[in-house]
Amino acid sequence: MRKFRFALNILAIAVFSLAISSVAQAQATRTWVSGVGDDANPCSRTAPCKTFAGAISKTAPGGEISVLDPGGFGAVTITKAITIDGEGTLAGLLNATVNGIIINAGVNDVVHIRNVLINGTSGASIGLNGIRYLAGKSVIVENCMISGFSQRGIDVSLGANTGKLSVINTTITTGFECIGGQSGIFSIAIFNSRLMNSTNAALNLLTGSATISDSLVAHNSSFAVIAQGSASITCERTVISHNGTGVSATGASANVLISNVTINNNTTGIANSGGTVRSFLNNSIAPGQGAPNASTGQQ
Q: Residues 250, 273: contact at Cβ < 8 Å?
């Protein structure tokens, strides 16, 4: 009887180990999606999946989802370190009425989204947020286009979490705000990007810090760049033009630092409401666009 029980235990362990091994083997370090794929496929290059959501469950943590050919690959929630790359093709993510990409990853996870068109418009329907960053060590958005959302192109709502957002060579033209920092302990770096056509603000921080450099911020109805609460923003080598208000700091602890910035053709160039806007004295500010707390000049 003991021998029989011992044999059953050995068999159970073997079955369990085989099951774990099968799950591990099912997750590849690199998977593929295609406009003519099928989520029932293993997401290999020769048998690709149809959607990012279908591929992500078959991609190992730290792995990459690549795009084979043009298509719309659907909204996705990311809960682990991963790269989604649409290089070399038209990789679309069409998501009316919902968020495009939700990132709710682990404290050590890095998520990289590059070469993807994130579009929230479908007929009369409008998406919520293009990317919603809720948790994860770092998020990198590179060579992307984000448009057609009623709330934010990128929403940083980390709650009690910490994180870093990098936006590189990306164009955001969307509804309420292009990039909004709502909560959490975070830093944002924006480089060589275009933030345009929002109804409220291109960059609005309620907390945290951001640096925007070598970029264009234009045609935003209310604000181009606004720091509120305890937020801090640095603008470098950036053109701020044709906005409601170009630069604003609201609240005693809010501050904006500008260097080599061009501010022109805004309804109001610089406006403070209890905050501080300071200058390195090397900016180009058109007549009538206002001056920061420390004299700007045109040096």
A: yes
